[in-house]
Amino acid sequence: MGRHIFFLGKGGVGKSTLSSALACKMQETKKILHISLDPAHNLGDIYGKRLSERKVSITANLQALEVDLSLWMDRYLQWSREELKRQYSYNVTINLDSFFNILKYSPGTEEYAVLWAIEQICKENEQVYDTLIFDTPPTALSLRFLSMPSLSMRWVSELRKMREKILAGRQTLLRINPESQSLRGTARKEDDQVYGKLAQIHYRLEYMYNLFKMKSYLVVVVNEDKLSLAESVRIKEELARLEIPLSAVCLNKTGCTDLDETTPQIKSAFPDIPVFSSEIVPGRINSINDLAGINLDDLLSDYLSGENI
Question: What letters, b where the CB count within 10 A reaches 16 and e where it falls short, cover 189-215?
């Protein structure tokens, strides 16, 4: 299936705990990087380590980091500021500073920051580690960043078409008046910086869409309560709309293992998706050693069976 595992689900269902348990199990034979995208990080509490943007060794084969979303939002805004200044350097009447004071609060800024954080982490580390495991934010933010590549590619495609029309208009005007001084920039899309930048953004978005669709194993973590199940079904439906396959469902915090007897509604809600269970660990998860009591062997076998497809 791929080299990336994403744990999705409602806040509080146990994504961090299960992703940590799987990371600890996999590090016995593979090199693993565990990444927290959740603004309310708790991987450090589970592992008993102080985590940050820098990778920290948990074991010889397991490292972990916590993405600082505020930092990535600043990076995204700075990149956008530099790009706009470069593109509109000829127009000194545009007040870019006031524009960016508003942009930081605009819809989509946080989602793009998460998206580019995932992009950089994957490109820098997927050749170093066997598997990258992501502990995601609660459903709302996760679905928004997962949908960003697909939605933004359509938007960028329309912008490219508009730019092509502008360049075609320039070519027409230059044929009429080759000496015109009022036409700025090139008339060829091969030489046009704006068209080139749009093509570059489209390439990055396509890379992320293919990463989610073809190179990732997406697991929805669900509890036995109705709210958790309803939100998990919403995740399944949204992923289907985006044509991103859901790989597995993991029923967490259950004291029973007979899914057909105890939770038929979960199996009926996900008829074509493998459903696995994780029993409650006696006591609380207080250290990395406690994670060994969480049995995710069936989930791991399912992931490994499709890893090279």
Answer: beebebbebbeebbebbeebbebbbee
CATH 3.40.50.300 fits 4-305, yes or no: yes
Tens digits of per-residue pLDDT, 179-205?
665 556 666 777 777 788 889 899 999
**Rounded Cα distance, 167 and 189, in Å:** 7
Q: What is the predicted pLDDT for the residue at 94?
A: 56
- Lookup: tokens for 173: 């005007």
pLDDT at residue 258 greater than cutoff 70: no
Q: Quick one: tokens of 122?
A: 């994957």
Structure tokens given for 244 = 């991103």
pLDDT of residue 249: 95
Residue 243 tokens read as 């044509």
Distances in Å between the Cα of 166 and the Cα atoms of 1, 89, 158, 160, 198 are 42, 19, 13, 10, 14
Confirm if 31 and 129 have CB atoms less than 8 A apart.
Answer: yes
Nearest-angstrom CA–CA distance, 302 and 276: 10
Distance of CA 147 to the CA centre of its chain: 9
Q: Where are the domains of the chain?
A: 4-305
